[in-house]
Predict the structure.
Amino acid sequence: MNYYCIENLIPQRAPIQMVDQLLEVEGRTAVTTFEIRSGNYFADEEGFMTEPGLIENIAQSASALAGYLSREAGEKETPVGYIGEIKNFHCYRCPHIGEKVQTSITLGEEVGGITLVNGEVHASGELLATTRMKIFISQNR
Amino acid sequence: MTREDIVKEVNNLLAEEFEVDLELFTPDANVRDTLSLDSLSLVDLVAIIQQTYKIKIPVADLKSINTFNDLYNYIESHLS
Amino acid sequence: MLLEDKYYKVTDGKTDGPNGIFRIQLLPDSDVYRGHFPGNPVCPGVCNIEMIKECTARLTGKKLFISSIKQCRLTAIASPSVCPELDIRINAQPSDEGFSVSAKISDAEKVYMEYKGEMRVL
């Protein structure tokens, strides 16, 4: 697997960048990691990164994999991705500042620029959240 | 797999996925209107047909699929 | 609230039993647009989901947790320039989990989000 720094794979930047690294790419599946740091845009007063942060982490993980696949196919630009639909999202608990989450992603069918995504977030060996999603991925900004 | 099997299975599959009554699945009814498809739910239709019948539907072919009859014909002709 | 007065502010709110409608203003200088996206400010869908959660908390008077989302459709791209003011309509029915919530974010021209899910009371 070739290494790209995350800024070359996803267009999102601070304060809403919610993925640190793309790892273990295999075909249309991958795993990303992300550390919950203090000051996280979606962290509440008790230091938990709340549900929207988990959804954004999954969406950006899918964009990172799509960005990787498009770079590997020779594209120079980082594609821009928007969430089109979230389906059957379930959240069991939120990660706390200091925890590191691992998000596993599978990219499914792609039709007319819309890609089906399956995502799961784990931390400290527990399942935190799962969802299905549709993401608009467009090559030009 | 006979044509009747395809028609029955596709209707049941789509009626459940898109929560639409079975009686609305008449051969010449428009697929997009009956299932009230937009760009987002069109992906679900393509994904469910491709997975169920192990066929690939290129976006270009989608334009030729308007009625349910077109859909049955497309599946029947592309079944390996 | 997490995003109130940081991403949006509520300018008007009417509630009637399980129903509420909140008029909000998107804050164009919100820090989030620095990174979403540089030079191309677009509302992150998840921030609009958080707005729905916070308006539902305001409607029900309870601190809430999004335990599941059956379906959330983002039907148009929102941004402070495209839609500076938005209406958030919410119906929150008590359920064994807490509340079954359906919501819609729209302005005079377009619907931006349709949302259906369960929220647990914290």
